[in-house]
Amino acid sequence: MNKSELTVRDAMKFARHDFLNELQLILMHMDLNNVPEARRKLLEATEHMRNDSQLSGLDMPVLETWLLTFDWNYSAFTKELETTIVPSTSARKADDQVIVEVLDGIFQQLVNGADPYADNRVNITVVITGDEWEVSLSLPGQTAPIVWNDVYEKEWAAELSRDNEYWTFTIRGH
Description:
The protein has helices at about 10-30, 35-55, 60-70, 70-75, 95-115, and strands at about 80-85, 120-130, 130-140, 155-165, 165-174. The chain is an alpha+beta fold.
């Protein structure tokens, strides 16, 4: 994670900023007496925190950090994270440093070609069932060619696909 490496201090600063923004938005809706919207925003913020918290079940600290700090490292994008995690009984065998290097390489290319006026939302889905895991990153409207080599490690595999107007990069392993 060369360029995107954050210090703990930086990460805490960004996290506090994001959390205060969420609280201010909820307070604004309460001040406007818009209780249903304030409630919706509160539940949405709680769900985001639950998804972030569940990432620890991935048992891949470098990948977990990359996912948690995605918005800060790739400000051209916003993320929507969804997790479904059943804790594993054994440690992951995959080298998550290599996985993050592959993801960094791809997203550096995407940042360079990102349209600032387009919907650059990245839908990230993390699914863990027992010893199997899968991380999928899906973006709408990506037409730029991505240069990468098919990666097939002993413990994981990666694939790139396009379906309609969505570009999806999936990494799965055991």
